[in-house]
Amino acid sequence: MPSPAAAVLRTESRLFTREPGSLFWILVFPSVLLTILGLVPSFRVVSDDLGGRRVIDLYVPVAVLLAMIVAGLQAMPPVLTGYRERGILRRMSTTPVRPAALLTAQLVLHGAAALLSALLALAVGRIAYGVELPRQPVGYLLALVLTTAGALALGATVCAVSRTQKIATAIGSVVFFPAMFTAGVWLPVQAMPDMLQRIVGFTPFGAASEALDRAAAGGWPGWTAIGVTALWTALLTGVAVRWFRWE
Hints:
It is built from ten helices and no strands. By secondary structure, it is an all-alpha fold.
């Protein structure tokens, strides 16, 4: 007989797959954006200013980060706050199935979707535009998992400080655009001026971009970038745990 937590995960998985909007924006949109950018001829030309790389090479980690940002800030917070607003979490607290099981299920599902989207972006970059796969796969995987945890912790923080679903959506949208900028959506972090790179490197997704880029190039992600990402993940997790309410 499956455990209550497993039953919740199975049920939430069914509900998650019935949300075509979330699935599209997390799983499909980053790779679609990468495909469109790759159609720009100048983005496929090697540039000395980028260390002998092409712009499209820099946008693969951007597509990876975009999936995590969408999952953490746009997809997950409205679901969790909606459950809380409708009293579902409160009612679950009176049953053998604890509300924490539902929270865990949402984290697992959105994290898995973000990681699957990352693999899809890597495949599209490789197949469509010849972007090399990460030369340091262990370091890349470490940065990937840590960044996913940070993005979900950020989303959980949005849930924690939002009383209603509308407020969660509004706060998520406000945080979404700066997160995209620091991830390099409009301008890859590696192409930013040096001073701006250093500033962005202290943000969660700026540090993650640097870690992923170094691992993709064959080096270790860098302890500074990994440390910044880990610190943000720990801080956001602490805030989410401290302020999250089931009712």
